[in-house]
Design goal:
The protein is of the alpha+beta class and about 450 residues long. The protein contains 14 helices and 23 strands.
């Protein structure tokens, strides 16, 4: 049975993936806390992205820019003036909406999409999505700063620092994973759109004229990454931005979209940003951000190919894509078919019964495996129920110590997806689990 958002939300709370922020005080809208299972899943996704984008490539390096930046950064980027959504209110029910998300037919007669009253909507006004705060002891206009709405600008303003210190040559990239904040008018769909979120972004600097080739390369590479993550290929597609969607600074843009329960939605953007960003920061800062090519003796402002993914949206995609209610002969089991590389727990270790030395053997096996993997030890309840608990959090392998273990030092290894069990020697478990995580992730 396919996942619904309600079922995924219920599983996340029940099994410690995600909780409503400040829940004991009634919660805060569109903000979530990651629980023990969720934080492991999120960390594994981040690590997998970093490995593929930075550690596996000689011409991409990472940075970690500050969240608080000079206000001029956001003037140069256009966020102060243009990072807005059209906002309308209903005079009757007092609900608030983004004008561009209301059905065009309803917009014509001012019909509220919530209460249905005609001529109830106010004229649209522009609403800036940046969170504003103050730095220093006095709240005055001179001390205004912003919580960054994206991580990309931290890369652009550090482009020259990275270029000079790392001696990279074009083409090269700078990657960053970090928090961003947007005061969304209509957040929702669980963690799909939140006000505090995390981005995985890479900005690839190229010589003008080579940008189209680089754009096609990264479009292909980023789609492949989701395939490697184990996401169902039939639920992924590329959507090209039409002329009405294209940002004013972009030459081309594609979204990698996933078919969520609420329809096809953006998972990641791949954009050809031309030389807009560096040119703007060069203009506003007065600093030379050109690149000198030793081989051709040319000086130019690099073009930028951007790949921008949301960590939280990727987490949500993996949860939805992996969720299944599988009908068995006598029951229905809920299982998360997560790629073993990103599964929060790699293996669970069970003593079949709590006697005859089985718990002690199981404890030692768990301790040995913990040197390399996140392992869960469970000696509580019937072994069938223990299997089901692990299925719900996506644990790929369950290791059970039974009476035969006492005779020949072998254990059973159960596969999450097939539920097939086979026996293996205790002395080889570390290598066996490592090999299976690698092979079943491919």
């Amino acid at each position: 049975m396919a996942a619904t958002m309600e079922k995924v939300v219920s599983l996340c709370r029940r099994r410690g993936f995600l909780f409503q922020s400040s829940e004991i005080y009634g919660g805060i809208n569109a903000c979530y806390d990651y629980g023990p299972m969720g934080v492991e899943l999120k960390r594994n996704i981040r690590d997998l992205w970093w490995e593929s984008m930075v550690r596996a490539r000689e011409n991409i390096v990472g940075i970690d820019a500050a969240i608080l930046m000079h206000p001029k950064v956001w003037e140069a980027s256009g966020h102060v003036e243009g990072f807005t959504d059209p906002l309308v209110d209903c005079r009757v029910c007092k609900m608030r909406f983004r004008e561009d998300e209301i059905d065009p037919e309803k917009r014509k007669d001012g019909r509220c999409p919530h209460c249905g009253n005609k001529n109830a909507l106010t004229d649209a006004r522009q609403f800036n999505l940046m969170f504003k705060t103050h730095m220093g002891p006095v709240e005055e206009s001179a001390s205004i700063i912003y919580l960054r709405p994206e991580t990309a600008q931290g890369i652009y303003v550090n482009y020259k620092n990275v270029l000079d210190s790392s001696r990279l040559k074009i083409p090269f990239g700078i990657a960053q994973i970090g928090k961003a904040f947007r005061n969304e008018i209509t957040p929702g769909n669980f963690i799909f759109r939140t006000r505090e979120f995390e981005q995985m972004e890479m900005q690839f600097f190229v010589k003008p004229g080579t940008d189209a080739e680089a754009f096609e390369y990264w479009k292909e590479q980023r789609m492949k990454w989701y395939f490697q993550l184990g996401i169902n290929r039939e639920k992924l597609r590329l959507h090209e931005h039409g002329s009405e969607e294209l940002a004013h600074y972009a030459r081309a843009a594609f979204d990698i979209e996933y078919e969520f329960p609420m329809g096809w939605k953006e998972l990641e953007g791949v954009h050809n940003r031309t030389d807009f960003d560096l040119s703007r920061h060069q203009e506003f800062s007065g600093k030379d951000l050109t690149y000198f090519d030793d081989s051709t003796r040319e000086r130019f402002v690099p073009y930028i190919i951007e790949t921008s993914a949301g960590v939280d949206r990727t987490v949500l995609t993996c949860l939805i894509d992996g969720y299944e209610e599988e009908k068995l002969e006598k029951e229905t089991r809920t299982v998360l078919h997560l790629n073993p590389k990103i599964a929060p727990v790699k293996a669970a270790v069970f003593p079949l019964v709590n006697r005859d030395g089985m718990p002690e053997i199981a404890r030692k096996i768990a301790d040995d495996l913990m040197r390399r993997f996140n392992v869960f030890f469970d000696a509580s309840g019937a072994v069938g129920r223990r299997y089901r608990r692990q299925d719900e959090i996506g644990t790929p392998f369950c290791i059970t110590i039974d009476s035969q273990t006492l005779e020949d030092d072998t254990v059973t290894i159960r596969n999450r997806d097939t539920m097939i069990q086979d026996r293996a020697g205790i002395r080889n478990l570390l290598q066996i689990i490592g090999d299976r995580i690698r092979t079943e992730s491919e």
